[in-house]
Structure prediction request, 776 residues.
Amino acid sequence: MDFDFTDDQQQLRDAVHKWVEKGYAFERRRRIEAGKEGVAGFSREAWTELAELGLCGLYIPEDEGGLGMGPVEGMVVMEELGRGIVLEPLAQSLIGGAVLSGYAGAELRNAWLPRIASGEVLVVLAQQERKARYRLEVCEATAAQAGSSWTVTGTKNLVPAGDQADAFLVPAKASGKLALFLVERTAQGVSTRGYGTQDGGRGADVVLDQAAAQLVTADGLTALEHAVDIGLASVCAEAVGVMDQTLAVTLDYMNTRKQFGVAIASFQALRHRAADMKMQLELARSMSYYASLKLNAPAEERRRALARAKYQLGQSMRFVGQQAVQLHGGIGVTDEYIVGHYFKKLTQLEMTYGDSLHQLGEVSARMQDTAGVFA
Amino acid sequence: MDLAFTPEEQKFREEIRAWVRANLPADIAHKVHNALHLTRDDHQRWARILGKKGWLGWGWPQAFGGPGWNAVQKHLFEEECALAGAPRVIPFGPVMVAPVIMAFGSPEQQQRFLPGIASGEVWWSQGYSEPGSGSDLASVKTRAERQGDKYLVNGQKTWTTLGQYGEWIFCLVRTSNEGKPQTGISFLLIDMKSPGVTVRPIKLLDGECEVNEVFFDNVEVPAENLIGEENKGWTYAKHLLSHERTNIADVNRAKRELERLKRIARAEGVYDDVRFRDEIAKLEVDVVALEMLVLRVLSAEKSGKNSLDIAGLLKIRGSEIQQRYSELMMLAAGPYALPLIREAMEAGWQGDAAAGALGGFPGGVTANAPLASTYFNMRKTTIYGGSNEVQRNIVAQTILG
Prediction:
């Protein structure tokens, strides 16, 4: 039982921190959000910079071009990206790297893993369907086999940077059973419609009409659950970074802003609110650790842990986000000031890979007679 | 970073578990698991068993006869005791006054008082709060006037937990009115059998007398019972508070009680009611998050790398969780938590199976009689030990200045 970071992990954190501070200031983020580095909400240039730091290959084995690191390193990186409310979806490379190296055959691995690691290609998970909400087993997309090749037909929404990605990891039903496929965006039968998202990032609807696909694994649900759990751990860590900054700017503002002739930090009602935000942040940080440290546990234990973690994070994100805006007063609801952007990011993260009500249902369904971290 | 305990820590846990299983009297564990009334004798029996093993002062350094465990070992010991259904060790002797005597007492005081604390022979009480001094503890008014080789003590303490059983009491007393309130306080050990000491139990919402008023009327206390220097008592009291850090979160007991809540909910037929079950699920997440918070503090203490100054958060969260599980247990029983049948809180109650020794009534439903009482009792947790509002002040001071 040990929650200290190693020197290597600290160096990784410092490197990402430095890039965020120097290379991804709020002004650049604004430009990217406005599409001034390409399309609204995504910059290929920024993506390349992340790749140059080695981050796109974090979960990819070293002999396949990656860094071969684990969940704690992933957590450290996502926390720091959260601090800068970075728009580019690095979590997708963590998911893609882990899923392809964990479930795909040699051909797919060789073709994609080194290029994901180098940042040459962006592979994203395209699981969201209109009727599924957050349920992973609900899937209307279908796959058909002709000889040794596959095609997939269906519609996926909210695909991260979906019109910019090079390939999608797509769950689809093959003979009634969920399987996972890789579909290239330029394949025939693929059409996309990109749009900005509320957090300033980018999503897309992806329509697949008998699009050529390669089978990643026939045990699609197992792989999809794993993929989403990596996504959940990433969301938790990213949210901790966002909340760290959110609380910091709020405390700073409370000590600066004067009303009735004194700093508003002198009012007990507001001080107690700040203490409650600190509580939610530390509970969230604790559960983000828990999420990442359980990421390599057996599936059932992992799923239970990730649901617990995301439920806590969801509660914390909503509280910290809403109260940060409230404590800032009017300036908190302007586009000009950064705290509103933290709030929007937190709101979107709560709704990513299962909101609080969904996760509560998961926790509730998976309860055991015992309880606790070591249950 | 690693969630798992080390093999050595696991082995330590198993040794503790085996010993507790072999030595904790079954009748006491039964009472704890069912929230039945614990007598003075129950507490004393368990204290003496621990004392004989040298574990009543489980946080003590080896120099004073303790096991010299580190923060993680102490936590594992507390967890194994809690999960097995051991009563909470009455902390006033081994956890509170003993560290003060070790740090600030004279060698004579250490030799005189520590053995009786370590063995569980002497029952200690805490004399801090007064009718006019709750959250504002530094305002204590109980006076101790030096007269030759003794102090003459006059005043009143209150909320003295289980003071009716107490043999000795450590008190914050006022020895000076000069300067700031904190600078005129002394730390005095008082024999409760002294003439002029009167203990009056206070009946609480659960009908039990868990706390007392203690009156001092011209009580003569030998000057040799003063700890350290006169007017330095506030410093010693703060040292004492620093000794209940993770302990105060009581997460081990929360884990045990969450299991009990699930058993009660199942027995009452609400475990599969989605609205009720979700409330348990929320509490489960709260308990896991609290445990992670506690583990982070322990890890920081073990490695000494990042100090985590979040004792206030632990107190707030731990106490909120205690209240919530007691509330949900009561709500699980619904109307059957309402009968006020005191006998049902005693061991040996035959319940509703038959008209037993203590007068069960076939057809009645009294097994849940303690649930509402516990709920009422637990309202204390957000008030004592520095109310949660005072804790929020402390947290805010840390982050806002």
Q: What stands out?
A: Chain A has three domains: 7-121, 124-218, 223-365. Chain A has a mean pLDDT of 97.
